[in-house]
Amino acid sequence: MIRLSQDSDAFLSAVDEIGGNDPFACRVRALCRSYAPSLPFVDYWLTADEAGQVNGAIARNGASFLLYMTDRSELREVASFLHMAGAAQVLCDGRFLLEGFAREKTGAVMVTKQPAAVTADCPVIEPDIRAVHALLMTCADRDFCPPAFEDFYVDVSHRLRHGTLRLCGTNANGALASVAMTVAESEDCAVLGAVACHPDHRRRGLGTAAVSALVNRLVSEGKTVYLHRARGVSEAFYRRMGFAPCGTWREYE
């Protein structure tokens, strides 16, 4: 069964009780901590077995859905629900196969619980959101397409205020040259995303400086740090930083 949850605290407690330090649970929890169920563009559901035992969670942000599922989740029920709910995009653990979607892509999940193995000695700043978006646009490709500026600015500034996102960056020649950010944070883990370095300033250690500074701050707070990496992209870089593969992600459209 799938039931709507309209109480943030009850939903978060139920997700925590499922157990597991998990990047998908982190994303679901961070969204709920950022945007309350009373808002019109988000919804939160819990999945349960016939005995009422909770075995998964679903979060909606617009037409994008996040899934935190377990081996006890009923995948056919979840897939049918997503289609009826009008899901345009679904992100979940790569272990779980959902039927009825036209397209899908997968990539690697990596993790570290230790300080960065490689660091760079250059000043790290908390960059301006406008500068971050401009930098991300210079690094856009088929695997990474930043959202429109207004949507990005509103979402990032809101999550910063709620402590579910943070930014680190470095400057070169008076402008932002690299950035690393968490796209989700919860009490025990964080998910890195939108790591970028301006094409004119690569191979100078600036990206390493931003990522290592952010990782070290998170680890010092006792958080496990995850990242979702596109297939074949930046694996050597993150391995040098101390990340190791721990699974896969799957995105449906």
Instruction: Please state the CA-atom Rg, rounded to the nearest Å.
Output: 18 Å
For the biggest β-sheet, the strand order reads 1-2-3-4-5-11-6-10-9-8-7
CATH architecture of the largest domain: 3-Layer(aba) Sandwich
Largest sheet: 11 strands, mixed
Main features:
253 residues, 11 strands, 2 domains, eleven-stranded mixed β-sheet, alpha+beta, Aminopeptidase
How would you characterize the overall build of this protein?
The protein is about 30% helix and about 30% strand. With about 250 residues, it is of the alpha+beta class. It has two domains: about 100 residues; about 140 residues, Aminopeptidase (3-Layer(aba) Sandwich), CATH 3.40.630.30. The chain starts with a strand and ends with a strand.
Summarize the model shown.
The protein has 253 residues and is of the alpha+beta class. It has helices at residues 8-18, 23-34, 75-84, 129-138, 149-162, 206-220, 235-241, and strands at 2-4, 42-48, 54-61, 64-69, 89-93, 104-112, 167-172, 175-185, 189-197, 224-230, 244-252.
Topology:
Elements: E1 2-4, H1 8-18, H2 23-34, E2 42-48, E3 54-61, E4 64-69, H3 75-84, E5 89-93, E6 104-112, H4 129-138, H5 149-162, E7 167-172, E8 175-185, E9 189-197, H6 206-220, E10 224-230, H7 235-241, E11 244-252
Parallel strand pairs: 4-5, 9-10
Antiparallel strand pairs: 1-2, 2-3, 3-4, 5-11, 6-10, 6-11, 7-8, 8-9
